[in-house]
Amino acid sequence: MPEMLEIEIYRRSAEVIVGREIKKVRTPDSNYIKGGVRPANLRKALEGRTVVSARRHGKLLILETSDNGPSLGMRFGMTGVLVVDGVDAISDMQYSSLRRNPKWNSFSLEFDEGQLHMRDPRRFGRVELDPDESKMGPDAADMTFKEFRHALQSSAPIKARLMNQAVIAGLGNLLTDELLWRAGVNPSVLSRSLDDAQYKNLYKQMRATLRILGARGGSHRGDLHEFRHRDGICPKDGSLLCRETVGGRTTYWCPTHQR
DNA sequence: CCGGATGTTCACCT
DNA sequence: GAGGTGAACATCCG
Questions:
Q1: Which residues touch strand B (CB under 7 A)?
Q2: Cβ–Cβ < 8 Å for A194, A158
Q3: Percent over 70 (pLDDT), chain A
Q4: Protein A109 CA to nucleic acid C2 C1', in Å?
Q5: Hey, what long-range contacts does A159-165 have (CB within 8 A, 24 or more apart)?
Q6: Shortest CA–C1' contact from A188: which nucleotide?
Q7: Mean pLDDT lowest for which of A75-89, A90-104, A138-152, A179-193?
Q8: Looking at the whole model, is its pTM more than 0.90?
Q9: 3-state SS class at A127
Q10: Distance CA A249 to C1' C5 in A
């Protein structure tokens, strides 16, 4: 999916619908509604409400509605994109041409003027009323160093821990590989085995990764990204990158400077 | 044809 | 209980 940087781009593009009344809810893919809620109930809950804010928590985009109405949580799976008033805020992601096809509209809100579509070829995304945020960790961009260090006291590999949304919300496979590469930390190292200097450096590199890749336009704009393939070389020292599954995801790392 | 892809969840182990 | 693994979800791409 889109990771937190992409969701933040979606959130900004959704700000233009704040103040609009939801006239119609369309659910062409009923599997897209999480929790067995019926499409009719979703419509009843949202139609006639006004969107009062668009906020983000990790990879979750949340629209709040007027008059103590329910919030609408949106998750974008691996390939979901948000299209607001016909504008796709991210045009150079994987599957970008397919995403232009309204065939993949999975969920839509319509207003007097304009509309919001979730478009998702692989259909792994979901929408949900009043999503439970209590089981999510703090957003990666808002974490203090103390919270960060505390979150990493675990016997899981550092990469698995960083990607665990219940501990830190927002980091995905690409951002995590990039920040570990920048920090010079081996993805398989047990997270509680780092020393304080390493926690500090990791925290600093997480913030830098979010800031720099955010400014460049997304999770796929990391220095490591173009080398994440078999035969990829480390752009820092020229070593052949290792490829391994860590935390259930394909992981690339440099055997020379990531220890 | 096969493996793999920015994610989440669940069953089944250790 | 914590955490690992593999599968499933659905579709396209190289």
A1: A 1-3, 6, 58-59, 75, 77-78, 93-94, 122, 124, 163, 165, 172-174, 218-220, 228, 248-250
A2: yes
A3: 96
A4: 41
A5: A159/A187, A159/A188, A159/A246, A159/A247, A159/A249, A159/A251, A160/A246, A160/A247, A160/A248, A161/A191, A162/A191, A162/A206, A163/A247, A163/A249, A164/A137, A165/A58, A165/A59, A165/A136, A165/A137
A6: C4
A7: A90-104
A8: yes
A9: strand
A10: 11
Q: Tokens 């009344």 — which residue?
A: A21
């805020």: which residue's tokens?
A: A89
The alpha helices in chain A, defined as continuous H runs, are: 4-14, 39-46, 96-99, 145-151, 158-163, 173-183, 196-216
A102 touches strand C (CB under 7 A): no
Considering only the C-alpha atoms of chain A, give the largest distance between any 2 of them, rounded to a whole number of Å.
58
Q: What is the pLDDT of residues A201-247, one digit of tens each?
A: 999 999 999 999 999 999 999 999 999 999 999 999 999 999 999 99
Please give the mean pLDDT across all residues of chain A.
Answer: 93
Helices (H) and strands (E) in chain A, counts: 7, 11
Residue A257, helix vs strand vs coil: coil
Other beta carbons within 10 angstroms of residue A31's beta carbon come to 9
Q: Is nucleic acid strand C under 7 Å from A98's C-beta?
A: yes
46-75 of chain A touching strand C, CB 7 A cut-off: none
